[in-house]
Fold this sequence. Notes:
nine-stranded mixed beta sheet; six-stranded mixed beta sheet; disordered N terminus
Amino acid sequence: xxxxxxxxxxxxxxxxxxxxxxxxxxxxxxxxxxxxxxxxxxxxxxxxxxxxxxxxxxxxxxxxxxxxxxxxxxxxxxxxxxxxxxxxxxxxxxxxxxxxxxxxxxxxxxxxxxxxxxxxxxxxxxxxxxxxxxxxxxxxxxxxxxxxxxxxxxxxxxxxxxxxxxxxxxxxxxxxxxxxxxxxxxxxxxxxxxxxxxxxxxxxxxxxxxxxxxxxxxxxxxxxxxxxxxxxxxxxxxxxxxxxxxxxxxxxxxxxxxxxxxxxxxxxxxxxxxxxxxxxxxxxxxxxxxxxxxxxxxxxxxxxxxxxxxxxxxxxxxxxxxxxxxxxxxxxxxxxxxxxxxxxxxxxxxxxxxxxxxxxxxxxxxxxxxxxxxxxxxxxxxxxxxxxxxxxxxxxxxxxxxxxxxxxxxxxxxxxxxxxxx
Length: 422
């Protein structure tokens, strides 16, 4: 148990770095999106790699899909880094751990289809070291990979070499990739990641989130002038207007607003919403995400040619319940505690006759008089702009004070005559 806790601590302290962003504009939805799933049961697509799948620590020429494995290494030295969770810090997220020692081969290969000509595409993956500085007696050979994009006839369109995957004592995730402009008559390309053969002990690495997607000019949206989430109360009065912005680079752009009811997992075109602004229809509840997509009009029907903006989350929160108007009574010359306020209110404000005002949650009218008779209002402010307004009518009645004399100590079992006056 202590070892497991220490591994979790180690994972929480891992370093995450990235190269300069491979897409300087806005990306489209992934055409290839290999995340290796989560938990057990993930099955590698057929012929996706020339390395051999194993259920535990990989030996030469082998790999494992896992979210928690430790004690691996070269030549049984068991010095590789403990692999807990994927590069997004998801403890259940899987990765591909590879032992490429003296084992050149294809780590991953796939085909991207239905591409659009003259469109920029980016092929990328997150890769980290698996070995420590003590691996192989301190003489480990770092892994190196090459990422390639080819036509179906084998013509190379783009290629990049990762260089040495630096050996550290913690995982250091880094995004590697390359891009290209799709030439005419090239509806499909083959993307691959291969291990560069190196002699000697080492060449262990881990890879995650292999993606291929379009990349175009910058596209963004705002909600009422802000890119932050829209959390409002059901009685909101704000305009709730989405505004799209895109940078130069499109010849004949076509726009489309989309919404998502599952936190951005799936997106649905909003019928008729194809102008630069979109007024969100008023609703009383629910969570919906919004975004704008854009593409050249000639290719707009192809999902693989579209560019997506940032997503904005909107949530309508219910109005807190309030009390119906009611009467309450006060006694002349007595202190009167006003009705209890909500424990969830951020602030309150009482107003009443004779200029009465109080922001206290336990407001009291001291020594009420007949002049305090009248209407009292209570405004309570909650999160997300929600408010409630309650009203109470106060009526003052004459009070009575009763006294009893004499007020003397009385012994148990002894009676005493009292005289009462009001």
